């Protein structure tokens, strides 16, 4: 991920929010919280499809996206730990 990709994606998110009548600052905070261009693109897609009328709906979706990303990270860490443990067990048997 390049800085310009992150910046462009953030600007798209902020523009989408502002076009729906939300403050620019909300877009900046949401972009910072989501962090990755992929998450910001997902949020931008939600904004264009659902067109939420209030900030609470926007924040709820941001929290849902963040929770799904965190769950994915935990799953991958667990899979890695399990693979390492299985490797350890297989080496002990040999």
By secondary-structure content and strand pairing, the structural class works out as mainly alpha
Number of strands: 0
- Report, as a whole number of angstroms, the end-to-end distance: 42 Å
Counted up, domains total 1
Order of helices and strands: HHHH
Shape: elongated
Question: Roughly what fraction of the amino acids lie in strands?
Answer: under 5%
Work out the radius of gyration.
Answer: 18 Å
- Mean pLDDT, all residues: 92
Sketch the major β-sheet: none
Number of helices: 4
Helix content: over 70%
- Report low-confidence residues grouped into runs of 5 or more: none
Textual characterization of the structure:
This protein is mainly alpha-helical and 94 residues long. It has one domain (3-93). 86% of the residues lie in helices and 0% in strands. The protein has four helices and no strands. Helix 1 crosses helix 2, helix 1 runs parallel beside helix 3 and helix 3 runs antiparallel to helix 4 (55-93). The longest helix is centred in the last third of the chain and has 39 residues, at 55-93. The radius of gyration is 18 Å and the shape is elongated. The mean pLDDT is 92.
């Amino acid at each position: 991920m390049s800085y310009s990709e992150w910046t462009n994606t953030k600007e798209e998110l902020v523009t989408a929010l502002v076009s729906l009548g939300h403050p620019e600052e909300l877009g900046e905070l949401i972009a910072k919280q989501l962090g990755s261009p992929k998450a910001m693109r997902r949020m931008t897609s939600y904004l264009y499809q659902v067109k939420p009328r209030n900030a609470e709906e926007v924040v709820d979706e941001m929290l849902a996206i963040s929770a799904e990303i965190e769950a994915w990270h935990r799953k991958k860490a667990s899979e890695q730990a399990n693979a390492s443990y299985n490797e350890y067990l297989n080496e002990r048997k040999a």
